[in-house]
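During the no-cost extension, the postdoctoral fellow (Dr. R.K.) reprocessed legacy sequence entries with the updated structure-token encoder. One reprocessed record is reproduced below for audit purposes.
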Amino acid sequence: MLLRNEYEKIGFETFWGGVLGIISISAVIAEMILGGITPASAASAVKDISGTLIVVILLFFAIKQLIPKKAKDFKGIFKNEMEKVITKYKPLIKADEETEGRYVIASKIDSLFDNNTGSYIRLFDFDYRSKLTFAVSKTLFIGRSKEEFSEQGKIISDISHKISTSYDGIVSCNAEKDGFTINFQNELCTTEDAALAAQIVDNVILLYIAEYKK
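Re-encoded structure tokens follow.
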């Protein structure tokens, strides 16, 4: 069953012309079979079907255009989208050079202002299918001190709740021991999916900045 917006994209004439065309072709074939297949009936059927087939082809072509196309290089497209995020927060985050799918963040979020990044630590891992796994580390949020990271659970809960609420019906979030996982309800494969994943990463980074305590 087509959704309303998909129906509107196809258009009234294309949709109903195609539907009626399918019915008409089915009727011609049924009539030929029931009346007995002869050279004359077959020729008549071909003539009737050929005049209707074009509207059916137009309908199937319109529907095909609505089906999301898998990106040939999803991983590469995601990396390109992440380059925009990296540039936006430079020098705060970057791709890890040793681990595929991993991005790291400066241990000093205020490096956004003074470029003093300190060491880089894990921000998230992406499986390039349906899961982003973020780390919520003591080093990032309160520094390398003997102070207990008592707000870790709250930070994980706050960020997870915000993301799952903002992208309701698209993702779900699960709290982990030292972070959280964002699970996409559908496997990611299109150009639009890659942009969406990068957008969610961008939003999580903003939430990290908001939770920064140093």
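The CA atoms of residues 2 and 63 lie 9 Å apart. The longest helix spans residues 39-66. The remaining legacy entries will be reprocessed before the final report is submitted.
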